[in-house]
Structure prediction request, 112 residues.
Amino acid sequence: MATIVRTTGETLSLSDLSLASLQLAVGGYIEAVTTHDNCTMYINEEGKRQGLPVNRAATSRYRHGRYDSIVGDVVVLTAEETCAEQEQLFPLDLDEEDAFLPGNPAEYGDST
Prediction:
């Protein structure tokens, strides 16, 4: 389950990780950034342009040798949650022999 971190410091749980839900949580288009502790943080892509307030909690987690501030509400996923989200969005069927070959397998020398 992901965590919404508001600019006020308030935190909320977020179980729906759909694009629409992430956009609703940050208030606009999302951009993914990596935190110093290897989590994924979804931020509002246009937050600075929109003049959103600085999110001190998110900035302290993001700023690890970087000189930038995070603004607006954010969604944070741990490394495990990020992997689970990617697997859900882009499932791989590794049982299929030709899962990684586009087109007709005969084109690649497979006569089956």
Notes: Residues 2-108 form one domain.
